[in-house]
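User: I'm writing a tutorial on reading structure tokens. Could you give me a worked example: one chain, its sequence, then its tokens, then a sentence or two explaining what the tokens reveal?
Assistant: Sure. Here is the example chain.
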Amino acid sequence: MSLELLHALCSMLELEWEAATHVRDRLAVASLGAFSVIAFCGSFRGPELFLVDLHGLIKYGEEQLISNGIEYVIVPLLGRFKTELGEQYHLTPMVATARSGLQIKMWIQRVLQVKQEAGLSRGPAFVGPTPGSWAYGWYERELLERFQQIQGRKPEIIPHDVAVLEEYRLSRSFRRGATYEAKAPGTQPDDVDLANRWRTFKGAKGKRPRLAMRDHYADIHLLIPALIRFSVNM
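And here are its predicted structure tokens:
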């Protein structure tokens, strides 16, 4: 998953968004866009995006968050496990607009807008197209279909000899691509470690690892500049 491919995907989804009129279609397009930019700029594995909590996303989306003149957003993941502090959010700050032009806040706001129109304010932010449908399979299928279209139109991004259905997977492609792009000037190794701290927490199996931060907004406030640096350089 390259930054160039993600931009091509977002351009395709932008055209679909402009053409969509039905709430269901608008929600599908907005969800694919938000899912992709969050997964990439947050260095997430695909399955982790299904922990993004809609109520928390709305809560933080109502605020204008700025650090050192840089606007950012908060993506809250709800821990589906019991910790010594109870079930709670893991907060991931990301820049509103990345250096390359990726519009993280815009896609999130579109999801929230359509969810509001549909009367939805609770539960996972990313779900399947119909109640009870398998969200993971739908997102992977929809994204891979678009990758194949991009391959047909722009082989300089995905060469014709690449087997898209074999080489790209929701479980790994976004995080691998983000890690590769993070080698660009301006991103330090510590920035990558901070971006990946969610996995450190998960690996502790419900017990807090020995980190120099907590996952509440008030506690991570001083770390915001460092935490958003990873996504700024995308």
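What the tokens reveal: Confidence is low (pLDDT under 50) at residues 80-87, 198-215. The beta strands are 65-67, 70-78, 89-95.
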